[in-house]
Amino acid sequence: MGFDVPLWRTFTLYRAITLVHALLMVVQNHQYLDRPWVAWLVLVVMAVWTVVTHQVYAVPSRRTSRFLCADLLVAFGCLFATALAAEPFYLTQAPPLSSYWFAGTALAASVIWGRRGAATVAIAYGIADLTLRVIMDAAITGATARGVVLLLLTGLAVGYMARVAEQAEERFAQAVTLEARIREREQLARSIHDSVLQVLALVRRRGDEIGGEAAELGRMAGEQEVRLRSLVADGLNTTVAVHDVSAGEAGPLDLRDLLRPLQSVRVTVAAPATRVELPDHTARELTAAVAAALDNVERHCPEGTRAWVLVEDEPDAVMVTVRDDGPGIPPDRLERARAEGRLGVAQSILGRVGDLGGTTEIHSDPGEGTEFEMRVPRPQA
Length: 381
Known about the structure:
The chain is an alpha+beta fold and 381 residues long. It is 66% helix and 10% strand. The protein contains 13 helices and 7 strands. The strands form 2 sheets. It has a 5-stranded mixed β-sheet with strand order 2-4-5-7-6, covered by helices on one side. It has a two-stranded antiparallel ribbon with strand order 1-3. α1 runs antiparallel to α6. The chain is elongated and about 110 Å long. 26% of the residues are buried.
């Protein structure tokens, strides 16, 4: 049951209580009625309409502006019917026939139309009350102004609280959905760990023991094991990250979550224990540059070359270092590649980091591996 169900039930209860109050006022001041039958007819209409609004507003799909306008017409009609039922002196002893009952309609407007609707209805009530007193040639007192102010404040408060409660209910539903997804992913992760990962680990160990072609199969199985573990962990983290931005505002990304899937048997990723936050585009482009550097290791270095990715979180920048233990880049190799039209390093690494306003330093000596130092500044607040 949503928050709106008890809210609308309270509105119905309020209408019923104010209907009883209107009945007591009519009985108490019966001698000031010119046409008592009109007053009793108005009370019957108010009673029937209270039942109708209870049935209609109980169904969310029926809470439309069209029905609310009908509700307002009935409320204003009952208000102006006072001119037909009573003499002017009646308004000095009691409020108009539907005065307090009218607030039930104003409360409904505050929920359906919001705070602006509540303010509009309150002001319209004040104008209608003044018009009624002018028509009946009755005295205008401060009670009219006080009634409008109370109706306005009540409508604004109820409209605001209804909106807050609606947002809270939406967030609660999102939290329940997130919890269900996390549990489902955790169950899947346990299932994968108990079956696929165990088999891959066994193949890797047996391949190392047997040697030969089996060792190569074991190596491949080990790589897939590491990647699958990273994929499962990244999936759980992504579920939480998606929920964090479900409110509609894309927040910063944790660079560690994007780099983690790049880890394998031959690639080690080292990052701080705390979040390394960067804007969405910056984090993804920096990750793509790191992936391009690791791809160069895979394509141009001997089999078995290891690589390390180190993330350093500085106050004004983020530095990512990609280092390998390969043979290194021969002198002038990058210049020759650029002249031959092969712009992998120039565009995929240097170009990406440069577009982010960062810098890239390349350190490489023959036989001592290669090191890319990518430094990207943080955006100024």
